[in-house]
Structure formats: C-alpha cells, structure tokens
Amino acid sequence: MNTASVADTLRIGALVLGPTVARGVLARRPRVVRLAEAADADRRAGRLLQRMRAKYGPGPLMLRFPVRRLALVLSSDDVGRVLAGSPEPFALASLEKRKALGRFQPHGVLISTGADRAERRAFNEAVLDTAQPVHRYGETICVKVREEAELLREQIGRTGELDWDRFRVAWWRVIRRVVLGDAARDDHEISDLLTTLRMNANWSYARPPRRRVRRRFAERLRHYLEEAEPGSLAELVARTPRSDRTEPADQVPQWLFAFEPAGMAAYRALALLATHPEQARRAREEVDGRDLERPQELPFLRACVQESVRLWPTTMAVLRDTTTETVWDGTRMPAGTGLLIHTPFLQRDEETLPYADTFAPWIWLDGTAQESWSDIPFSGGPGECPGRNLVLLTTSCFLAMLIQRHDFRLVSGQPLTYARPLPRTLEPFGLRLRARPRAAS
Ligand code: HEM
C-alpha cells in the first residue's frame, strides 16, 4: 500500500474530503450543495483520484492526516474486500460515524459493534423485511404511498408543475405514515426536530450537542412507538422479539432520516425520465394498465431509482475502521485505521465503467451492477442497507402513481440528456418539472 505525499494528501483533503464533509454528511446543506454543483466539485474530485490512481497504483492509498490515518479505496476489487470483510476486521462503526450518530442514536446498529451489532442488525432486518422485495406490510404501505401521491397529483393537475418543495412535503408524509403510523402524518415537528439533530451532528466535534432537541425528539418518538399503530413499522417494532441489547428506539431515527434521501433519489429519477424519452416510454409501459392498488415489484422503476442513487449517491463516503492490526499488501494498518470508499468517484469512474456518466437503468436488470463492486449505492456485503427493498418498493410505487397520469418535462434547465455526460453533482432543490396530463390508462 502506498502512502500519499504531503502535497497529495492536502490536495485530496481540499478537493475530495473537504467538499464531501462541507455538504453535510447526515443532512445536506442546500447552499453548499449548490456551490458544489456550480463548481462541478465531484468531477474535479474524480479527476484528481484518477491521477492519484495512475501515480500510486490501484491499491488503497494511505493518507496521513495529523488526527487520522485514512486509506482511500481506489478500485472495485478493494471495495469488495472491504465490504465483504465488514464488520470484522472492517467495522461499520467508524470514528466519524460514532461521533456524529452517537449524538442522537447512540445504540443505532450502524455504530454498534460485536454482539450488540449482531443483535441490532437482526432486529433491523426483521422489522424491515430486508430479504423480501415486497415488505409483509406492502399492501398497507402502498395505500399510504398511493394516497399521498394522489394528493400530489391533484396539486400537479392544478398548477401543471412539480417542484422539490411540494414533492418533499408529500414524501415526508409517506415516511411518517410508513414508519410511525397515520397519526404522525402531519407531525412536521418530529421531522424538523430530527433534521435539527442531523444538522447538528454534521458538525461532529465542532459544536455542542442539542440536548433539549434530542429529549423532545425522543419523547415524540416514544409516543408513536408506544401507540404502535397497526400497519406501521412502529407496530412491528413492538411485535419483534428483542433482548436487552436491542435498544429498539435507537434504531428508528435512522429509518426516518434515511428515508429522506430516498425521496431525493426518486425525484432525481423522475427528472431523468423527464429528459430521456426512451426510458420514459419503458417506464410508462411498466405502469400503464397496472392496478397500483396491489403492492408489486416494478423492476424498471426500481432500476431507475437505483440508477439515480448510483449517479448521485446519497451516502458519499462509506467508511470503515479496522478492528485489529491488519496487513494489506504488506502494509501494516494499526487498529482504528479508517478506510474510505468515495462513492461519487467509484460509481462514475469512466476509466472502468462504460456507462459511468449516462442514465443506464439496464445495469440493474441484466446483472451488470451485481457483477462488480463499483455500483454500491446501498453499500454491500453484511453491512448492506437493510432498508434497500423497502426504499425501492415505496419509491417505485410513488413514481408509478405520478407517471401513470402525467408526462413530465424538465423546465429548470439542468443538462440531463444523452447528448452530454450527466452532471456529477445534481441538487434536487432546483429541479422543476412541467406536467401534462396523459390520456387515462
Ligand atoms: C435512498 C435511500 C437509502 C440509501 C441510498 C441507503 C444507503 C445506505 C448505505 C450506503 C448504508 C451503509 C452505510 C455505511 O456502511 O456506512 C446504509 C445503512 C443502513 N441503512 Fe440505508 N439507505 C437508504 C435508505 C434507508 C432506509 C429507508 C432505511 C430504513 C427504513 C435504511 C436503513 C439502514 C440501516 C439500519 C443501515 C445500517 C446497517 C448496518 O449498520 O448494518 N436505509 N444505507
């Protein structure tokens, strides 16, 4: 394993790590994201990392910062080694995640280790039905998704337009109803409290924790978990066996906040469909004439959402820490060394992926994405996102509802066409779509 020179370490810090952290690891800061988009920050970072790979070789590149040793993973084979080797010897509970998430979900699975982690992971998988393409509450979940999408469709029908603010409000209602129950539909406060906690956690060491906000959030969450409304994940939390290690209430905040980027992914997918006529036609073929009253797999729309998260990953840094001294290609990494997988680089690496900068939903349908460790928007291996199928069920159903009734056209001007490489950074906040009603299907 090579070690980067001081000058290269500083360059990587300034062009790769700095912009990633500045955008907000747990909650995006819209103004910084806009700046990153304007500066084409992820393309610059990608170019630098390609140069580093050419200079130092494809193996992980050690960066020695005064406070932290970080090995930057630069090839898909090494991504596979790291993800398949989680949680031992490569722990998901990295220093940065523990500092940030420890502020409001100290017993969350993502920052747990050993027997605690095993127990909490099993609990998450049991509630989220990780292995099932359609969650056992699929029917109820789809009713909630449909009702909110219908209301959004009415608004679109009145104004002929869709923007992120409207989409976001509808999506958060879906999140609260699915996770906490219908009684939480209009509880914007619980979402706002969680956003405040995530924004605060973005600062990791630099700002004191918001203890009052955390208490208030925990009280409201406890209320919904005690009510355990039938048909919600809160009900499954109450019904799923637990031990004294499980800490169920500390698992739920992650479900709530991880659902928000799922909305961003769905909205970007809609923008892609609005600018790619051939893919839009396939999506319409998938939903036309379908009875969306029933929960079902919609493979093409699922592929579009996965593609949207590949192109614009919502988890930009997948981090691991070595749990013991580990020797990698002859280099000794002491316990506690960080490993960093920068997904905007690996998932858009045009030196290795022919489809890097294009909208290519087919890679999720023909096995291409599964064959390599480059496309990991939901991570992979034993630490893969246990909510993946639930996300794909809810987002594909939501999108199906929208495209069944309207054709969309992007009117905010972002260059999302086949003619040019897709932008590496795309904030959802500024995407505006015009909608034209379709003949009833
Ligand atoms: C677009 C939406 C989502 C994306 C792209 C996504 C992606 C990811 C990724 C990349 C990880 C691994 C993080 C790491 O290794 O540091 C992860 C972990 C996790 N995700 Fe998701 N996620 C999404 C939504 C959700 C939802 C909606 C839920 C729950 C309802 C969820 C539950 C979890 C949990 C519990 C973990 C921790 C897993 C563990 O520690 O073993 N995610 N997710």
TrEMBL record:
It holds the Pfam family p450. Transmembrane segments: none annotated. GO terms for molecular function: heme binding; iron ion binding; monooxygenase activity; oxidoreductase activity, acting on paired donors, with incorporation or reduction of molecular oxygen. InterPro entries: Cyt_P450, Cyt_P450_sf, Cytochrome_P450_monoxygenase. It comes from the Bacteria. Coiled coil: none annotated. Gene3D superfamilies: Cytochrome P450. Belongs to the cytochrome P450 family. This is Cytochrome P450. The lineage of its organism: Bacteria, Bacillati, Actinomycetota, Actinomycetes, Streptosporangiales.
